[in-house]
Amino acid sequence: MVIKSIILTGQTNSGKSSLTLTLARFLGTNKFQVETQTSDKKKKHLKCNFTTAQQRFVSSQQYFTRGINCFLIDISKSLKWKLIDTTGLSNVIAPCEDLRIGMAMTIEKLQNCDCIIHVLDTVQYTDGSYYEIDDALAGLHTKISYIPVASKIDNVKANIGLINIKKVVEEPIPCSTITGEGIVNLRQELLKKLK
Ligand SMILES: Nc1nc2c(ncn2[C@@H]2O[C@H](COP(=O)(O)OP(=O)(O)O)[C@@H](O)[C@H]2O)c(=O)[nH]1
Ligand SMILES: [Mg+2]
């Protein structure tokens, strides 16, 4: 059995957890097998459906994901993809220790994965702000399979956000977990990168 690991990273609240669940469901998983690891390095296994997973893993609250959540997906009889949802990274020093550990865990996973999905939020990018951390993550494209995603493309000002995101990363895939836009393109790109 081959397991390919795909890490989702980006700034807090950019939509990593939502995208992880939407992609997992699109890949045909209804019963999620999840391995969670918190900042104390304790691992737990759980099984849940999409709705329960959304309640548990997605929030409008900043810094909601603390640690690493791995979703194991059957792609074929001999291949699994492990979608790794992370705390992500931020431009500022995180306010508490478990978040800082969560970010260190994110960096560790970035070094040992088969592909990186970098999630950039079109809402956050509407005002033309510059974020050093996204610039740093964009630099990874030369080293490893790297896919940039422009998230929340359903929002009213998404076009402005997308233009600004294109100044940071090349050819981001516009995605929405609400309308489902771009998820098929993301799967296509993953299949190409993980060949
Ligand atoms: N409009 C819209 N909101 C989204 C989308 N994806 C995520 N969100 C919202 O953005 C917030 C943060 O999402 P989450 O996945 O928890 O972000 P994370 O911190 O990067 O894991 C939540 O309120 C989500 O409902 C999307 O495609 N469109
Ligand atoms: Mg999250």
What does this 3D model show about the protein?
By secondary structure, the protein is α/β, with parallel strands linked by helices. The chain has one domain: P-loop containing nucleotide triphosphate hydrolases (Rossmann fold). Helix content is 31%, strand content 27%. The protein contains 6 helices and 8 strands. Strands 3-2-4-5-1-6-7-8 form an 8-stranded mixed beta sheet, with helices on both faces. The longest helix is centred in the middle third of the chain and has 15 residues. The protein starts with a strand and ends with a helix. Magnesium ion binds next to helix 1. Guanosine-5'-diphosphate (GDP) binds next to helix 1.
Feature tags:
195 residues, binds magnesium ion, 6 helices, eight-stranded mixed β-sheet, alpha/beta, binds guanosine-5'-diphosphate
Described by strand count, sense and barrel closure, the largest sheet is: 8 strands, mixed
Provide the helix percentage. 25-40%
Low confidence ranges: none
Helix count? Answer: 6
Provide the domain count.
1
Q: What integer value in Å does the Rg equal?
A: 15 Å
CATH homologous superfamily, by name?
Answer: P-loop containing nucleotide triphosphate hydrolases
Q: Which structural class should the secondary elements be placed in?
A: alpha/beta
Order of helices and strands: EHEEHEEHEHEHEH
The assigned CATH architecture is: 3-Layer(aba) Sandwich
Enter the CATH topology name. Rossmann fold
**Global geometry:** globular
Number of strands: 8
CATH class: Alpha Beta
Q: Mean of residue pLDDT?
A: 95
Ligand names: guanosine-5'-diphosphate, magnesium ion
Strand content: 25-35%
Give the distance, in angstroms, between the N- and C-terminal Cα atoms.
15 Å
Order of strands across the widest beta sheet? 3-2-4-5-1-6-7-8
